[in-house]
Amino acid sequence: QVQLVESGGGLVQPGGSLRLSCVASRNIFSIYAMGWYRQAPGKQRELVARITSVVSGGRTTYADSVKGRFTISRENAKNTVYLQMNSLKPEDTAVYYCNANFGTRDYWGQGTQVTVSS
To answer: pLDDT tens digit string along 43-75?
Structure first.
């Protein structure tokens, strides 16, 4: 079992920045891919950014809507994955969820709210 705890959400003005953090309860990055998803009201949950496991090379992928603005990274020693979000737009408003995936094993955090508004 893996517990994921997100933090860092909040209210920010358009054009601003936030950094989300996701702390895993144990060291899983060697074999687990980590991802950030988001879900806006009335919409389906969507993948925002993903980083493959250490053994898979740590490759990153991004949704087209966030490319060039968001960056996913991890700090293995702290069991922490980050999502740096710059140039935020109102359409980035959503609950952001951290995900850990290894084959059929799938774990989710509780989510953190990000609101972009003036």
So the answer is: 999 999 999 998 999 999 999 999 999 999 999
Joined together, the tokens standing for residue 110 give 């509780």
Structure tokens of 57? 């090379």
Of the candidates 61, 65, 15, the residue with the CA atom closest to the CA atom of residue 43: 65
Q: What is the pLDDT of residue 79?
A: 95
Closest CA to 58 of 37, 24, 32: 32
Instruction: Report the distance separating Cα 69 and Cα 5, nearest Å.
Output: 23
CB 47 within 8 A of CB 35: yes
Q: What is the CA radius of gyration of the chain?
A: 13
pLDDT above 70 as % of the chain: 100
Nearest Cα to 99, choosing from 10, 39, 41, 40?
Answer: 39
The rounded distance, in Å, linking the Cα atoms of 25 and 39 is: 24
pLDDT of residue 85: 98
